[in-house]
UniProtKB/TrEMBL annotation:
<dbReference type="GO" id="GO:0005524">
    <property type="term" value="F:ATP binding"/>
</dbReference>
<feature type="transmembrane region" description="Helical">
    <location>
        <begin position="146"/>
        <end position="166"/>
    </location>
</feature>
<dbReference type="InterPro" id="IPR023298">
    <property type="entry name" value="ATPase_P-typ_TM_dom_sf"/>
</dbReference>
<dbReference type="InterPro" id="IPR018303">
    <property type="entry name" value="ATPase_P-typ_P_site"/>
</dbReference>
<comment type="function">
    <text>Catalyzes the hydrolysis of ATP coupled with the transport of calcium.</text>
</comment>
<dbReference type="Pfam" id="PF08282">
    <property type="entry name" value="Hydrolase_3"/>
</dbReference>
<keyword id="KW-0597">Phosphoprotein</keyword>
<feature type="transmembrane region" description="Helical">
    <location>
        <begin position="108"/>
        <end position="126"/>
    </location>
</feature>
<dbReference type="InterPro" id="IPR044492">
    <property type="entry name" value="P_typ_ATPase_HD_dom"/>
</dbReference>
<dbReference type="InterPro" id="IPR006068">
    <property type="entry name" value="ATPase_P-typ_cation-transptr_C"/>
</dbReference>
<dbReference type="Pfam" id="PF00122">
    <property type="entry name" value="E1-E2_ATPase"/>
</dbReference>
<dbReference type="InterPro" id="IPR008250">
    <property type="entry name" value="ATPase_P-typ_transduc_dom_A_sf"/>
</dbReference>
<feature type="transmembrane region" description="Helical">
    <location>
        <begin position="863"/>
        <end position="883"/>
    </location>
</feature>
<dbReference type="InterPro" id="IPR006408">
    <property type="entry name" value="P-type_ATPase_IIB"/>
</dbReference>
<dbReference type="Pfam" id="PF13246">
    <property type="entry name" value="Cation_ATPase"/>
</dbReference>
<dbReference type="InterPro" id="IPR022141">
    <property type="entry name" value="ATP_Ca_trans_C"/>
</dbReference>
<dbReference type="InterPro" id="IPR001757">
    <property type="entry name" value="P_typ_ATPase"/>
</dbReference>
Amino acid sequence: MADRDEEKRRMHIEMQDMVDGRPANYGISVRELRDLMEVRSHEGYNKLQTDHGGVLELCKKLYTSPNEGLSGSPADVEHRTRTFGSNVIPPKPPKTFLQLVWEALQDTTLIILIIAAIISLGLSFYKPSGELAEQEGGDESESEAGWIEGVAILAAVVLVVLVTAFNDYQKEKQFRGLQSKIEHEHKFSVIRAGDAMNIPVAEILVGDICQVKYGDLLPADGILIQANDLKVDESSLTGESDHVKKGDVRDPMLLSGTHVMEGSGKMVVTAVGVNSQAGIIFTLLGAAGDDVKKDKKKEPEDGDGNADAANYKPTGNSHNTNDTNTTQNSKGAEDGENNQDSEEDANKPAKTGGRKEKSVLQAKLTKLAIQIGYAGTIIAVLTVLILILRFSIEEFVIDKKVWDNFYINHYVKFFIIGVTVLVVAVPEGLPLAVTLSLAYSVRKMMHDNNLVRHLDACETMGNATAICSDKTGTLTTNRMTVVQSYVGGVHHKTTPRFDSLPGSTGPLLMRAIAINSGYTSRVMKVPGDDLPKQLGNKTECALLGYVMDLGNNYETIREEMPEDKLHKVYTFNSVRKSMSTVIPKEGGGFTLFTKGASEIVLKKCDFIIGADGTAKPFTEQHIEQMVANVIEPMASDGLRTICVAYKDYVQGNGEPNQVQYTTEPDWEDEDSIVTGLTCLCVVGIQDPVRPEVPHSIRQCQNAGITVRMVTGDNINTARSIAAKCGILAPGKDFIVMEGKEFNKRIRDQSGEIQQHLIDKIWPDLRVLARSSPQDKYTLVKGIIESKISATREVVAVTGDGTNDGPALKKADVGFAMGIAGTDVAKEASDIILTDDNFSSIVKAVMWGRNVYDSIAKFLQFQLTVNVVAVIVAFLGACLIKDVPLKAIQMLWVNLIMDTLASLALATEKPTTELLERKPYGRTKPLISRTMMKNILGGGVYQLIVILVILFVGENFFDIDSGRNAGIHAKPTVHFTIIFNTFVMMTLFNEINARKIHGQRNIARGLFSNPIFLVIWIGTFIAQVIIVQLGSFALYTAPLNLEQWLWCIFFGVGTLLWGQIITTIPNQKLPGALSWGASTAEEIKTMDDDDVDGAPDDEMARRGQILWIRGLTRLQHQIRVVNAFRMGVDSLDSYENRSLSSLSHSQHSLQTLRQQALKKSGSLDILRSTSGGGGAETNAI
């Protein structure tokens, strides 16, 4: 009885411990799975077999099916997440608003202002002697109000800090959202409940069956169940650049963060999130983060990536990446004799080889900020010296007055004026204008199908002079259909009837297409939609559609020959340009199916199916006839030609086109296997040109941008499509060539690529056909490095394949296809085209030029304000021992006017007018002659008005003079009119600044920008309040209506004056008037300078820390929002990201491991993450 009760109790417990109909306890623990993934190669396979009984037994322990996958039920998902974790890294908390406030307070200039304001505040309570008090003027109440200026400056500083912190907070929040969108876009193919589906990588669970294919970035650790010619790039973990062959017996371990370079397969997920190999490294590095920050002051190169530089090969691209094809020779770092040397090298102040190259605008702004900083520093120092010397000489030498401590007030006032002049001289609104313009553009570009991954690419695109575009999917619709075919000696212009195909050709052709295609490629009928939905490779979908058009069902064939029964698969890659699959024949033997580029596969054919359905000899002469009569006519119609062939292996006697064997062929000897084929058919696949593409290409050509087509297609197909797109214009002597010919012509006798040979080709080259990814890279590199163009070329490139990575990274702007692109291509890109459409690139050009123009507009406006304010302060110091614009007033102009103006001018929408001018290029001045004409012309007008009011204003307005006022004198109407007139002229000049190319109609588009109008009107209202109610705090006195009307009249005068300036022809102006030009050498030199490190190194020692803050903040803001920077400083950018998104950071996990281990000293984790065998010696 007791035994029966015990049995019932045990059964009850077991029933309670059930999840989704299976036991809750798994047959393997997290620790055991983690230990399993620490070994590699045959050692990993042996451990899997001996400890866990093989991969199928492991699947049973994880309660998953190799064919059906997980059930996907909510209970199962929740239980697996609780047991094994989720595929995310626990986020570090974002910086709080108070932390951002504290960071903003570290600004050197603000600290100086705070100290000066506190001294001024303290001195305001000092009572001078009676005689000195009478000389200073003002009654007792005015003297008592002396503290207000100090408080007002402190309040202005607080406002600056709060605005800066709020802007940083908003930017961080906004770009976390951008990262979240990128994460959401990244999905991975898994099998759940027997159905293949794409799910966000963060939802991948332990036990999921993932379908791995060429171009994937693996989101989790797993073990292969089945593999087809799988090769993986594990350089991010091991440092070995050679691709590692993977197989269910050879090396079944797949690791998160690695790239699938070839082949396909299926894996069961064994570790996600922090338990995966990449997650272990990121977690370890996060744990060591505090130590890293502590050591940054001692070893600034660690934080800025100098220690990483050895692992990177500079590619001239617009962001940091690790070229997957570049050997990372880091083995020596682990050798005892080299370890010391490498540490010493790491501690040397070396230039950062791994830093990104500055964008065009960034390089020009860097130079401009330095020049402005020098000028501002000189004028500020001169202003303070003149004020101090003149006051001291007049008071103590000429008037022979006795020193009183009250005089300190004057010196503090002079010092505050000098610091304020410096604040005004450095365009504080410039970093904000850059950030706002980029952020605004990035948000809007998402609606135009441009997902910007690197902010600087946004404005760089505006300077693009060349676009090297793919054909398929970018210029064409990527909706492929078979429209012609050559079967059994007959050229069909329409789809033939299945029963009309000779002999057994039909069934054999159906099997050749259905089986020798990726099983992830499918064509699905959608109810209510005339066209079936194509999933996967579009060329394969076209062939599968052909099978369906012939009245057959490819899915039935695949069910008879499931993927795990395929004997050998040679997957498509850019070298083969074909795909082959070996399957077992019923009754013994094998059949090889091959499909690929027609001229390549035909050369491997010795036979062809004739009109009677039998194999006929296929000689060189027959091939030439086929090319002339079938392939070239198809290609001339813009069709992509694909050849389908087969070969039978039989035991014993067979047909002439069959291969006899006694021992199984060596399937690894691909060259001998894929030869002697029998041609089944040649099909012509149509991929129509997108209807909007010809117009978009004309827009590019009118905008001075040369469009080139770089494709792997047949030269005749490429020429036909290029002519339809408008890339090739009739009557123009443009070059169309194949990759083989291109390679031959750019190399010298020794086989080395020569730039001068490339320079002979690229200017007229419009189509590069049958090109490899290496050809594309060589072309892009050659155009970028060419010096035959006066302004140097800025090149944009599109790519979708894994091997397009080097070209995408080398380009100034890399566009990856959001639909057809592989993860590797997207990772290497700057912008993802979410619709794969060329017209979206044109929109990116418009937005890029708009960003550039927005910054130029703000510079034109800002520099006019700065020039006038600084010169007025300097002349005031020289002429009247005072400045007409008080310190607090200049802070108001600098803070509010600049901040609001940057927002107003940065939110202008792009117009097609932007595409009517040529690109600026790399070396064109940032401030053109037209802009300088407007700056100087507007500045002259404002200076004349202010100086006239300063010296004769009291007579004109019949008011008391404000000159020579005492230290605590009350605000005067005279100086208030000067201040108010200056602000009114600045406000109306903001309208002028909207046009930078000499346009007369300054009102055009004004009312289509509500943000500008709201800010302009709001600033005007704020100025009214300040003038009428500012009193001692802002040193203003209320004005009457007549005085207000005069101020507004002088403001409106800037609009009329602007029209007069516009009439001055630019040709009459000296070229020296342009400012901010950068030669290619200067851009390269600045690229080598560590700007962010400058205040702590050489520049600090030269006393330039005051003016460098504007530049530093600009650099910092752009880097904060760049979510894909390398090194320790970028870790904040990885928060809230799925593990796969972490891998998108484009910095080497190998490098992160070095840094993490350096801080933690955990050699055990080194061994666990580096794997066994040869991989261990190359882990670091």
